[in-house]
Amino acid sequence: MPDTFTPLISIITVVYNAKQALESTINSIVSQNNQSYEYIVIDGGSTDGTLEIIKQHESHIAYWVSEPDKGLYDAMNKGLRASKGKYIWFMNAGDLIYDNYVIENIANIYSPNSDIFYGETVMIDALGNILGDRRLKAPETLSYESLKQGMVVCHQSFIAKKSCCAFYDTQYKIAADIDWMIKTLKSSRNIVNMHQYITRFKDDGLSKKNIPRSLKERFKIMVHHYGIISTVLNHFRLGTNFFLYVLRNGRF
């Protein structure tokens, strides 16, 4: 790859001891029929064979590192620093690009003024089986104000211009993604709804495994960005909608 090459998208995968999930993610990326991307893998020093998977696919990886880190968001910051693409797309181990045409569709509507591309998400289990659409639908138009209503766009279905991206705030251990998205949206002007599925998202994220801490961090983030009164009022409504969704669908 020549030094002057500037990829359209830097796809960044953060992984730790998840060799099977990583291989599925890699396969979904290298199957794209448009190759206007660089692929970056940040491994936290895995010991389960993940490193061997990385080396098997090294010809498709522009940059990788395997070393201990200070948590998920420290690793994601490493990926940001290493990236050279115009846009940043985080696809962590186990997450899949929805189909082989997503990058081509982005490239077809790309303009230098586009700050963010976003779209819908389908949920999958550990075997890749589809569970259904994500609980929260992407809004027709998206701004930083939209996230008052919660994580209305999945982090993995949110592709942002690098110049609009801040680093992740590592004081948050579980919910720094929503803080990052709010900050990125505040720095963006032209936000493009793809009106399509972008990601197959594995339904076992860090926040679901640590719900009390995740809720506490998210509340703190919301208060910081939107104020206490707005945050409290929105949480009453969000809590009611969440409860009704679980009753209807038996999952969240």
User: Low-confidence stretches at least 5 residues in length (pLDDT < 50)?
Assistant: 242-246
Share of residues in strands? 15-25%
Secondary-structure content class: alpha/beta
Radius of gyration: 18 Å
What distance separates the N and C termini? 43 Å
Secondary structure tally: strands? 9
Number of helices: 8
Quaternary organisation of the protein chains = single chain
Short description:
The protein has eight helices and nine strands. It is α/β, with parallel strands linked by helices.
Describe the structure.
This protein has 8 helices and 9 strands. The protein has helices at residues 19-30, 50-56, 72-82, 102-109, 176-186, 206-209, 211-226, 228-249; strands spanning 9-15, 37-43, 63-66, 87-90, 96-97, 116-124, 130-133, 158-161, 191-202. Strands 1, 2, 3, 4, 5, 6, 7, 8 and 9 form a 9-stranded mixed β-sheet that branches. Strand 6 (116-124) and strand 7 form a beta hairpin. Helix 5 runs parallel beside helix 7.
Write the layout of secondary structure elements.
Elements: E1 9-15, H1 19-30, E2 37-43, H2 50-56, E3 63-66, H3 72-82, E4 87-90, E5 96-97, H4 102-109, E6 116-124, E7 130-133, E8 158-161, H5 176-186, E9 191-202, H6 206-209, H7 211-226, H8 228-249
Parallel strand pairs: 1-2, 1-4, 2-3, 6-9
Antiparallel strand pairs: 4-8, 5-9, 6-7, 6-8
Helix pairs in contact: 1-2, 5-7, 7-8
